[in-house]
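Internal ticket - ligand job 431, magnesium ion:
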Amino acid sequence: MSTFSSISSVIEGNFNEGDPVKIRGWIYRSRQQGKLNFVVVRDASGIIQCAVKKGAVKDKHFEDATKALLESAVIVEGTVKKDGRAPGGWELQAKEFDVLHFSEIFPISRDQSTEFLLDVRHLWLRSRELTAVMKVKATILAGIREFCAKEGYFETTPPILTSSAAEGGSTLFELDYFGQKAFLSQSAQLHLEALIFSLEKVYAITPSFRAEKSRTTKHLTEYWHFEGEAAHCTHDEIMDFEERLVEYVCHKAAKENRKDLEILGRDTKELENVKAPFEKIKYADAVKILQKKGAKCKEGDDFGADEEKLLTDDFAQPVFVTNFPAKMKPFYMKENEDGTANNHDLLAPKGFGEMIGGSERETDLKLIERKLKKAGENTKNYEWYLDLRRFGSVQHSGFGLGVERLTRWICGLEHIRDTTPFPRVINRAYP
Ligand code: 4AD
Ligand code: MG
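stdout (structure tokens):
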């Protein structure tokens, strides 16, 4: 027998008792009972207990199983047995136990500090929890791409090295580009806007960078940004697209990642119940609701974490807040006659915070120029963008979704850093 089976295929009962199986993975846990070693092995799909009994395997294999430490890489061949006491209800009774690599003493054990676990993140990634999150995130990314393809959006590849700031100077990472000033992209939006004139409906999933000086549970300095932009698209139409996308992705994760979400203690019912359309509250009304709930905020204030939580505590699914004062928002947002922006944030329920920011885009060339100047920008750096308002300008709308923000809410995680394998935050770019 030469092919390997995944551990989950055994645990899910795809084999009959007595069937031969061969698996490979890493030692997850191990305990010795006299002439019997119980070695729990994990692979990408799950864990299974292997019984390695003296006499049932070669002496060398029994000795190796006795001395192999956690995280040693192994191949186990044996027969399948139902066993209620084993995790998952199935056990592998070993006939062969090959150690591919004897691990040194693994530095991670129980009750270690968060900082230490972040120092050994490259090893901690092997934990069941982080493995589960990474699988959910893979589903989310696949779901986004599936949904966009169904809706006729083209995936595009905008630049990461840029010369223009979409979201203002305060969170820009600046770098020396052969003697010229350049930045790491905060958002692909401006370049996506250029692409709608050939492809009409476009999206990109790119790293975005924010020099966020604040330490919060929802800010990374490097995150994955899913952004969409569509020509001839109204503000309502783009929100409609977003809510259907979020519903699609939630249902897909609830269905395909049931086991992973269970490991994370996430109630999948809540995800199954996500149903578009979502509630839409105007910013001015949101302020009133917050004031009624006892918050100190007033018209013109941005919502902090406390306000977001207060506002969304009673909601079981995401909610849009629309029409923020245009003064609070970037130059590219369409301004309404009443001084509000034709924009929206999508807030996750229960204080998980903003997942999406989007708007209809301003098409008034003079107004954009005025706003850029007021923000202290050199309009020369934006000439290419202003050209988009000179040559066949049309109504259009778009949005940006923080993939880690969505992952955090779908997984129900306390901190955003656990949604990404190697988190970058203010005090950390290692490992
Ligand atoms: O609201 P933001 O700043 O909007 C933009 O960048 C627009 N130009 C997007 C567009 O319309 N194409 O960022 C969009 C989303 C936020 O809603 C949030 O989910 C995420 O990006 N985000 C962050 N995620 C993790 N860490 C950070 N520091 C983030 N900053 C924004
Ligand atoms: Mg925003």
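Auto-summary: Residues 345, 354, 357 surround magnesium ion (ligand 2) (CB under 6 Å). The chain has 14 helices and 16 strands.
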